[in-house]
């Protein structure tokens, strides 16, 4: 069956097109970090309540993605990396994306409040607002620090997960937030170095566009250095332990080594080998975050089973 209406010549959106609006890749990271935040908390959560909570957080993340795609449709159409998204490709209409984003936002926040507590629901609502309004509508197009400040949106999920269990915040949840917050700039700036024409063509004031690649390389190294003590420090809290500390030391050494390689290079070096070091740091950053949260989860399981961890 054709996806194009014979009568109108318009494309008929499929379920997959609407699902793509929710940014499933980003959603998977949100689900994972929120789940870890909830499971490592000192207060146990009933499995059914936990399932509903993670579902709400996932839907809230998807709502943020839909609202972001609605607002950014014009610049998405100018970038090779995003031109195939549902709105610029014509598969979903902007009004549909806006309606889906608003509906899912309300649904996720209200259901989370009813299933868990108002603090967790309020934090989820603020996360959606921060990503859709503060980051997408304001920071992204107005300042090269868009990724630095806007990174808070992606850092809130483990705090929400922790709040589901405890009804509040703590040094542990704040440090999980800080880990993702400090990780975000070097993660995205390393990507920006090898997709620089995309951001420039779209008029997005990414650091490499406004201040040049040398400044971007400097910032990547500085933020990677600042990230290390945050990541390692988390290991000395109640949710840390020897497995997490070993993971943090190894991963931060690996990340710093890659950032140093990127810092030493110039544009000629990067273009000569097709941004090999920059691509490697971006790839490392993905392993980096996953490894830290897996280690936290392992420590949590060991504590629950009485097999180890920090008391």
The name of the CATH architecture of the largest domain is Orthogonal Bundle
CATH class identity of the largest domain: Mainly Alpha
Residue runs with pLDDT of under 50 for 5 or more positions? 4-9
Query: What's the SSE pattern?
Result: HHHHHHHHHHHHHHHH
Strand count, sense and barrel status of the largest sheet are:
none
Going by CATH, the homologous superfamily of the largest domain would be UbiA prenyltransferase
* Radius of gyration, in angstroms, nearest whole number: 20 Å
Query: Could you give the distance between the termini?
Result: 60 Å
Number of helices: 16
- Helix content percent band: over 70%
Shape: flat
Number of domains: 2
What does the average pLDDT come to?
90
Summing up helix and strand content along with how strands pair, one would put the structural category as mainly alpha
Strand content: under 5%
Can you tell me the CATH topology of the largest domain? Tetracycline Repressor, domain 2
Strand segment tally: 0
Spell out the blueprint of helices and strands.
Elements: H1 15-21, H2 24-39, H3 47-71, H4 73-76, H5 94-115, H6 118-142, H7 146-150, H8 152-155, H9 157-166, H10 171-194, H11 196-202, H12 207-210, H13 212-234, H14 242-264, H15 267-272, H16 276-305
Helix pairs in contact: 2-3, 2-9, 2-16, 3-5, 3-6, 3-9, 5-6, 6-9, 9-10, 10-13, 10-16, 13-14, 14-16
Structure description:
The chain has 311 residues and is mainly α. The protein has two domains: 12-169, Tetracycline Repressor, domain 2, CATH 1.10.357.140; 170-311. It is built from 16 helices and no strands. It has helices at 15-21, 24-39, 47-71, 73-76, 94-115, 118-142, 146-150, 152-155, 157-166, 171-194, 196-202, 207-210, 212-234, 242-264, 267-272, 276-305. Helix 10 (171-194) runs antiparallel to helix 16 (276-305). Residues 4-9 have low confidence and may be disordered. It catalyses: heme b + (2E,6E)-farnesyl diphosphate + H2O = Fe(II)-heme o + diphosphate.
């Amino acid at each position: 069956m054709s996806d194009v209406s014979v009568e109108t010549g318009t494309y008929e959106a499929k379920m997959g097109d609407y699902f793509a609006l929710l940014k499933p890749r980003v959603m998977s990271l949100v689900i994972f970090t929120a789940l870890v935040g909830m499971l490592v908390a000192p207060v146990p959560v009933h499995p059914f309540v936990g399932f509903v909570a993670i579902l709400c957080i996932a839907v809230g993340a998807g709502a943020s993605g839909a609202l972001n795609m609605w607002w950014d449709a014009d610049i998405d159409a100018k970038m090779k990396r995003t031109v195939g998204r549902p709105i610029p490709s014509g598969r979903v209409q902007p009004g549909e994306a806006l309606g889906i984003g608003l509906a899912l936002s309300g649904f996720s926040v209200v259901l989370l409040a009813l299933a868990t507590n108002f603090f967790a629901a309020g934090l989820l609502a603020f996360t959606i607002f921060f990503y859709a309004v503060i980051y997408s509508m304001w920071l992204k197009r107005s300042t090269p620090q868009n990724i630095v400040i806007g990174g808070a949106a992606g850092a809130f999920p483990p705090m929400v997960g922790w709040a589901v269990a405890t009804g509040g915040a703590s040094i542990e949840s704040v440090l999980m937030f800080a880990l993702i917050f400090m990780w975000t700039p070097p993660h995205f700036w390393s990507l920006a170095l090898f997709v620089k024409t995309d951001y420039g063509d779209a008029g997005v004031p990414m650091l490499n566009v406004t201040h040049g690649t040398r400044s971007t390389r400097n910032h990547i190294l500085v933020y990677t250095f600042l990230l290390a003590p945050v990541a390692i420090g988390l290991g000395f809290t109640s949710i840390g332990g020897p497995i997490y500390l070993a993971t943090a030391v190894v991963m931060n050494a690996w990340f710093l080594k890659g950032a140093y390689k990127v810092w030493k290079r110039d544009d000629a070096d990067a273009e000569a080998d097709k941004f090999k070091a920059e691509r490697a740091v971006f790839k490392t950053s993905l392993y980096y975050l996953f490894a830290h949260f897996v280690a936290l989860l392992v420590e949590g399981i060991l504590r629950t089973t009485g097999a180890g961890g920090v008391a």
